[in-house]
Amino acid sequence: SHEVRLQYQGDSGIYAMVGGFIQNGEDLELGTGGLVPFRDLTPLTSIPDGATPFSAYTETETKAIFGRIAIPLMDERLTIELEGRYTDERKDLADLSVNSPYSYKDNYFTPRASIDYKITEDNLIYASVARGVKSGGINSTNTALTDEERFYSPDTNWTYEIGLKNTFMNGQATLNLAAFYIDWSNLQLQVSAAGASFFSANITQALGGATSKGVEVEGTFEPFEGLLLNAGLAYIDATYNDDVISSRITRSLLCGTAAAPSDVCNYDGDIGGNDLQRSSKFQWNIGASFDTAISDDVDFFTRLDVAGQSKQYASELNVTVIEPRVLVNGRLGVRADNWSLSVWGKNLFDKVYVANAFFIATPFFTDYVPTLGNRRRLGATLTFDY
User: Fold this and answer.
1) How far apart are CA 247 and CA 361, in angstroms?
2) What percent of the chain shows pLDDT beyond 90?
3) How far is 287 from 293, CA to CA, in rounded Å?
């Protein structure tokens, strides 16, 4: 990848930037699917009989131009900022298992606009609007796909945010508030192809719309020199739009059929109004740090952080739950001008928790794959500058 940019900073405070970007990538994907008989500890050194080989070669070429301009007004109390990026993308896939080449082309514009206004030197209000894009592409799999399944469209969103940033007590305290709204279109999700076999890999498809809205508050307070307290709280309400259908639910028959519907979930895959998977409604943190001199040349420092989040759903069905968790981290040490020594601990109370989980739903089997978070870790760090 290569990037070039030209920047300008004027005496009046005007800032401008323009640039270009180009990237070329090559990816070779190899895999097999098949049932292997129960084995002892003998290593598997070759593809077993009956397995389906799968390979795909993808070339990606991305070109983009981008720019940004910031204009201060009203004695630099008001700043208006505009930026944008135009991206042109091409993907070429050679699905070697069926010897079929495919091409995907797309271009999109991602703008952002913001405005900041200093009410006073210690109080600022801001607002912004931006568009984000997660590019589309080509599905590579070891099964036959329709044209609609072979390609998937970009995942896009518009994000709106407004907030306040405040400093009080001559810098001893800060309080920041923000509210946001995100409007998603064509959320991408892994699904099973309509003609999938037991050994087929999942494909990516655009699911539908969703919205996420919430508020965040964070602040710091320094009651006396050396001690700094901090806290933060976020509330996020992220849900699928009405009438969004999850095709992997309908194809897997996980929720029954029209003749024999499930009491737990909708047989037709309707997930409208459900929470987005792996999204907590509440996240919070509190912390404290303390620094003090223990000699003319050496300082003592310590920090303690506690962070938590509410439950999450592991899938769009909102059935299986990832439990809420609270984790505690800490550090203390000494430092001088050119060296420091600290001992630290992460997950100090050795909490056993699921950090993430993936949901697999096919016509042949359904599975949740959880990933456990790191257990307690203790360590020491020595640094020396020369």
Assistant:
1) 10
2) 62
3) 21
